[in-house]
Amino acid sequence: MNKYASTLIKQIQLSPEIRIITEKIFAGERLSTEDALELYNSSNLALLGILAFEVKKKQSAQYVYFNRNFHIEPTNICINHCKFCSYRRRAGQKDAWECSIDEIIEKVKNHLKENVSEVHIVGGVHPDRNLYFYTDMLRAIKKVAPHLHIKAFTAVEIDQMCRMAGESYQKGLQLLKEAGLNSMPGGGAEIFDEKLRAEICPDKTSSSDWLKIHETAHNQGIPTNATILYGLKESYEHRIDHMERLRNLQDKTHGFNAFIPLKFKNYNNLFSHIKETTVIEDLKNYAVSRIFLDNIPHLKAYWPMIGKEVAQLSLSFGVDDLDGTIDDSTKIYSMAGSKEQNPNATTEELVNIIKAVNLTPVLRDTLYNPVKIY
Ligand code: V47
Ligand code: SF4
User: Fold this and answer.
1) What is residue 10's predicted lDDT score, i.e. its pLDDT?
2) 85 Cα–ligand 2 center, Å
3) 19-72 per-position pLDDT tens digit
């Protein structure tokens, strides 16, 4: 245990259970699910911050990462009916969109002027677009931007593409990789508990298929991220079960780069009557995630969802990644009521956010290779 933290912790009154967990964390030992539950039930937010920050320092020292990126959302037409979603539309409905490959290429060309290194592509599960539409799209992007890293498609989109084409996950992912897919984002995980999943997103890819698709991707050298959707109807046990399934898979494959807790936003969806979590709960969740997921290197605060101020606060609760500059290119969270209605951040702004809490900003590529240390 470092001297400063150990002196601080000695001054805090701790229950015997929390003291044992604290010692485990400083000894670098893995926490059990019971330990995680004890931490979630603790009301000592300051202690959780100190502990999560210690774990963060072991993973990424004083560094906080971000990249220069933009999103493409090819369509918001979707065959699924997730009750928390503010984004999906039926074909022909007002506010529905579907971009052609030419329109997507126009967007790519426009964003390239901003010196970006990554495009994040995610959208609805379109009823008529199959694997080959998406391989054509990837090839067209690589043609105009060969060096752009393509992080694309949730496991839910990949599931549907493979089913429509009658291909296995392995073959589907191989074709996507050959066409230019470099990595996958972490969306679609929601909550793995089968009963709760059936209630909040009844027709979505099952938890076991989500995990199978990520495992298949990792085995083919496609790195991915992982998310959790929290703040809906789940208990702490549900969150811990979700993270344990991810931790077990990561022990096998080591293919997850980052974990991204996604806070339920309640504007204009079927769960609008559910109150959003407090900032205290959000910070606690970042801290416990950082401590419990000892084998996932990075923890991301996605500022278009949570806002820049809370993202800055989260840097004292184990977060070491602020995603990217975004360039006003995503609607998922603005349509769900985020205060970031046109999410855009300059490099300077992200650097200042990180420096203001005495940490060191690192401009990274998608795979966390440093490009510039500020
Ligand atoms: O899977 C949809 C979520 C996800 C709502 O990998 C909602 O770097 C909260 O996965 N309230 C897609 N969440 C976004 C995503 C993501 C975002 C940023 C970075 C990365 C990454 C991945 O958005 C969906 C779903 O869980 N979502 N609606 C809502 N109302
Ligand atoms: Fe479709 Fe994704 Fe919305 Fe679910 S969250 S309805 S899969 S767009």
Assistant:
1) 73
2) 6
3) 999 999 999 999 999 999 999 999 899 999 999 999 999 999 999 999 999 999
Mutation probe of ligand 1 site: the residue of 257, 277, 305, 332 with most atoms within 8 A of C-beta: 332
All structural domains of the chain with their residue ranges: 3-57, 64-373
Q: Which atom of ligand 2 is nearest to the CA of 204?
A: 7
Atom of ligand 1 nearest to the CA of 224: 6
Close Cβ partners of 55 (under 8 Å, ≥ 6 residues apart) = 25, 290, 291, 294, 318
Which bound ligand lies closest to the C-alpha atom of 204? 2
Cβ of residue 80 lying under 6 Å from some atom of ligand 2: yes
Residue 3 Cα to ligand 1 midpoint, Å, equals 39
Q: What are phi and psi of 149, to 5 degrees?
A: -75, 125
* Position in ligand 2 atom list of the atom nearest CA 124: 8
Edge to edge, the sheet with strand 69-72 lists 69-72, 118-121, 149-152
Tokens at 306, concatenated: 């949570």
- What is the widest separation between alpha-carbon atoms in the chain? 63
pLDDT in the model for residue 120: 98
Give the mean model confidence (pLDDT) for residues 10-19.
85
Query: What's the chain's average pLDDT?
Result: 96
Give the Å distances, CA to CA, from 279 to 78, 125, 268, 335, 343: 31, 31, 21, 20, 20
Long-range CB pairs of 168-172 (<8 Å, 24+ gap) are 169/212, 169/213, 169/216, 170/216, 170/220, 172/131
Q: Helix 33-41 to helix 279-292 angle, to the nearest 10 degrees?
A: 160
CATH top class, domain 64-373: alpha beta
Predicted pLDDT of residue 318: 98
